[in-house]
Amino acid sequence: MLTTAQQKTYERAVRLHNRAARRQAAGEPKSPEKLYLSALALKEQLFGPDHIEVAMTLNNLGLYYKSLGRLGEARAAYQRSLPIMEKELGGTDTRVGDLLYNLSQLLKKESEELEHRSDMIAEAAREMADDSWKATAKINKEMAAFALSVGPSRIHRFGVFAAEPIPAAKRIIEYTGERVSRRFWLSRCEHRTYLCNLDAYWCIDGSVGGSGAELLNHCCEPNCAFQHENGRVWVASLRRIEPGEELLLDYNFRKDCGIVRCYCGAPSCRGTINRR
Ligand SMILES: C[S@@+](CC[C@H](N)C(=O)[O-])C[C@H]1O[C@@H](n2cnc3c(N)ncnc32)[C@H](O)[C@@H]1O
Ligand SMILES: [Zn+2]
């Protein structure tokens, strides 16, 4: 039996859970997570970690993360919820069946992604096995204010590295390329993207006439940022960059160029190189 105070807390948790579910159904990307996590914390505080109420919120949270492509977090939520639901509802309950189906779809997707990543690494290793890539992947020194080099990156194929110290808030290199409409660029869209958005209509395609700035990789904790002035764009330092450090930008790609999983490895990595 719950005391009156506990009953009130429980009703609050249910309201939070239901509000999260409504916002999730309405396609709101951000607020459901906070609401589900608050509901979960209240339920755990009231009933302990292995209660069916906790499992129900975990289950919804799993669905929510899955819809956002946050597969690891979705898996963790489902895997915590499954044994509780099996124990409390029995192994033949259709809600357990639904959870198993969702989890199996998720694992399939995760497995496809791992295989894709493994293929990409193998393809990049083949491409970089000899030095032929160096003929095209280079820096136009006239466009750069600091010494830079191109070399193998821990994030993706090759990237751009500082070859001397770069102080904070300095323009490092101009981002050049062909100025095209985004619509035209999308029709050209390949699996690797050398792109800087100018506005909603125009962008610079660095794969044509690029200065080498187009070779910078993405990181969710960047040390560089684009700086726009009168229709021109530079890569500028956000902090001091030491020699040997890779120059990294937050691409913040719109979703219309496809969702690309991020492997920057930063503690606050948001999972994709696209904006949230
Ligand atoms: C402008 S290129 C950067 C240079 C690229 N490393 C190369 O070797 O051609 C952009 C492409 O690199 C890949 N890339 C860059 N940063 C990434 C990251 N953090 N995670 C995953 N892929 C990344 C993506 O395929 C993206 O479309
Ligand atoms: Zn990242």
Spell out the helices and strands N to C: HHHHHEEEEHEEEEEE
Please, what is the CATH homologous superfamily of the largest domain? SET domain
Described by strand count, sense and barrel closure, the largest sheet is: 3 strands, antiparallel
Helices, by number, come to 6
CATH topology of the largest domain: Beta-clip-like
Structure keywords:
276 residues, alpha+beta, Serine Threonine Protein Phosphatase 5, Tetratricopeptide repeat, three-stranded antiparallel sheet, binds S-adenosylmethionine, binds zinc ion
Report on the architecture of this protein:
Helix content is 42%, strand content 15%. It has six helices and ten strands. The longest helix is centred in the middle third of the chain and has 34 residues, at 94-127. It is an alpha+beta fold and 276 residues long. The strands form four sheets. The chain has a three-stranded antiparallel beta sheet with strand order 3-9-8, with no helix packed on it. A three-stranded antiparallel beta sheet has the order 4-6-5. Strands 1-2 form a two-stranded antiparallel sheet. It has two domains: 4-121, Serine Threonine Protein Phosphatase 5, Tetratricopeptide repeat (Alpha Horseshoe), CATH 1.25.40; 131-257, SET domain (Beta-clip-like, Beta Complex), CATH 2.170.270.10. The structure holds S-adenosylmethionine (SAM) and zinc ion (ZN). S-adenosylmethionine binds at residues 153, 155-159, 192-194, 214-215, 217-219, 260, 262-264, 273. Zinc ion (ZN) binds next to loops.
